[in-house]
What we know:
By secondary structure, chain A is mostly helical.
Amino acid sequence: xxxxxxxxxxxxxxxxxxxxxxxxxxxxxxxxxxxxxxxxxxxxxxxxxxxxxxxxxxxxxxxxxxxxxxxxxxxxxxxxxxxxxxxxxxxxxxxxxxxxxxxxxxxxxxxxxxxxxxxxxxxxxxxxxxxxxxxxxxxxxxxxxxxxxxxxxxxxxxxxxxxxxxxxxxxxxxxxxxxxxxxxxxxxxxxxxxxxxxxxxxxxxxxxxxxxxxxxxxxxxxxxxxxxxxxxxxxxxxxx
Amino acid sequence: xxxxxxxxxxxxxxxxxxxxxxxxxxxxxxxxxxxxxxxxxxxxxxxxxxxxxxxxxxxxxxxxxxxxxxxxxxxxxxxxxxxxxxxxxxxxxxxxxxxxxxxxxxxxxxxxxxxxxxxxxxxxxxxxxxxxxxxxxxxxxxxx
Amino acid sequence: xxxxxxxxxxxxxxxxxxxxxxxxxxxxxxxxxxxxxxxxxxxxxxxxxxxxxxxxxxxxxxxxxxxxxxxxxxxxxxxxxxxxxxxxxxxxxxxxxxxxxxxxxxxxxxxxxxxxxxxxxxxxxxxxxxxxxxxxxxxxxxxxxxxxxxxxxxxxxxxxxxxxxxxxxxxxxxxxxxxxxxxxxxxxxxxxxxxxxxxxxxxxxxxxxxxxxxxxxxxxxxxxxxxxxxxxxxxxxxxxxxxxxxxxxxxxxxxxxxxxxxxxxxxxxxxxxxxxxxxxxxxxxxxxxxxxxxxxxxxxxxxxxxxxxxxxxxxxxxxxxxxxxxxxxxxxxxxxxxxxxxxxxxxxxxxxxxxxxxxxxxxxxxxxxxxxxxxxxxxxxxxxxxxxxxxxxxxxxxxxxxxxxxxxxxxxxxxxxxxxxxxxxxxxxxxxxxxxxxxxxxxxxxxxxxxxxxxxxxxxxxxxxxxxxxxxxxxxxxxxxxxxxxxxxxxxxxxxxxxxxxxxxxxxxxxxxxxxxxxxxxxxxxxxxxxxxxxxxxxxxxxxxxxxx
Lengths: 240, 144, 549
């Protein structure tokens, strides 16, 4: 790992006219050092998110091993009836929505990097809209579950031929379903908040090729949210 | 207004760009179609493995291109890999435990009529016959 | 041989700056909203020492309860339920409010940027946020004690913790908040070490204190999130009965233990690595000799952090995990002892033929070596399956972890506090009384915990309120020992606080240390160094050199 020797002959946060980059924090020698450090800090935070969600994945995996039959049966209730056959419609649409939102996000970062203010705002707004679509579909899914009584723990109230109430495993499955998609949904909501803050700042002209760190960092956060869903989707919606 | 101070990458090169990002998006969407299609076939115990493998490819694509890991300093990628590595350790040891347990009940243990029968370790997919849950009140008398 | 210079300027000392980080700005707001790592370190120091006092009071109550079979403290009857609360709160406060946050938050926050030649940590505002999260967590924890108190043991094992009355939910929420404080601190230190080293300081030019704290930070970032999710699952199981940990509703109690110990075992390395980091500074300075095996200690620190992640099952040998898992974890546990052994060997070799002087910090460092040797070796007894079956959940375990957590980490913490006290406050403490407190500490600690090894190996279970008559003499001995510990801590507090009444005239470098924090004034100016220091020497180079400024 190399030392970061601040190049004393570089701009060091000052542009050619000797003006000071207003975002330069003084315990850093250069803007580049500051940007690299901010990114490193963000990656460290993201790894904590991976381990946080990862714990839930591990718990889910172990419970699936404990109640394989019940979990497989419960999985079917996450699918919708399309042309008479079960198909994970909502899940698939949500996956595509998030992937596209990742694309709009990185396009927004690119626009900020290249001093295109209007495009930055446009792409960020698109990302927010796609995130709202995601949450909307989640709302539809959840209301179906509520209606069917497929709820976690003591709230479990579903009675049908396949999922018999009182058998261990079903309530646990839906507990994990709501915990994981719910925690993920909370992260999407927080993401919408962060993106809205970015839109506000972008419209104010805060970002340019000299300083786009917040856009980049929120972008990284958003991609992790997408990455978590990339793993959530097959484990919940595609197992049969 | 553009200034000459670029806050990233030596030589102020812009990595990535709309073309690469768009290509990546199409790759990801294609892989989504593949994984949904694959789910309609039954490969037995390989189902989960295939699904997770495709998901991992997608995650790698997101990481390398959307998250810039291909063009960043290696330390960022090392951090991400470390996270998955330790998660893997957690999962692996837990599975080692759970899959190697011998869940037999003692033959002479009294009052076992109402107990949930232990899973049959020789037939892991066979579920025990369901029985109604005890009503909750047990906990009130048991502690204190 | 008296080497420490206690006051006055020496040839080569720069003139003392009038304004330093303590007096440059004044007022409550200037402290409450500070982003100066030194001020944050002082605030953490005060906070965690208050937590130490609270945890210590619970410890004294535990030991007083066990003094006689009647279980009366000053005439008041202690019930079994109350006793459960005493040891639970002692453990929870000590682990989550004191040991884990103390050295990283206080000493490291203060010293690490100075050692790296930096102006501050990488993310100063995050540092302040970390401190406030600690405050919030502390308030929540204390509230939970006042409202109803927890009696599950600090380990919160299910199904008792998911079904008992008592403020388990609030306490686990408090620990969740404290976990994030820890994560942010670790995150900050990793970024600081990677990015803010002085020009000329490569990875193998850093002080070993930094290596130790970097390793600690790795664990903080990677392990604590799993604790977070464990506590969330525990709370949900308690409130909604989701069926993951309680076997009556289909869960697996051993799963809770896997989740819990996946964090909590690396957590004990979050506790010991900072202590070892301090010792790596004290020993070369007071032996006036280059550290033996710099790279070995550096590698041992990081490998200790990494290997700590694969041994957690040794807390669960009799809990119900499979025999195969048990054997694997036991074998790996032997592996994790190796880096610790390397370090002890290297510290001893550093002292060998060194020019040793026995100031207070060195007395604590030597205590560390002896107490850690005992603590570490007794861990091997516990890692061996055949002996652990008899020793688990007895006082042997209690003695083992107190030897490593208290006999090692707290000893090192106190030693480090004395060592850096002149730097932080600009005052020298009374050396003679400091030395007396160190000797009393060593005597009191052994008096308290050595008998507990015997108690445990003879069958006295841990967390038990009642005991067989034959154990009483050892319990009495141990309780008297706890009073001696209290005396030593009281003395140290008096010694250090008394020094504050003197004027701030400590020299820049009273100990002749070679690391960068000794190149600036005592106390340092707000932005740490007048000019950006550039590293010119190898670490721990004690060869005589011309004094130039």
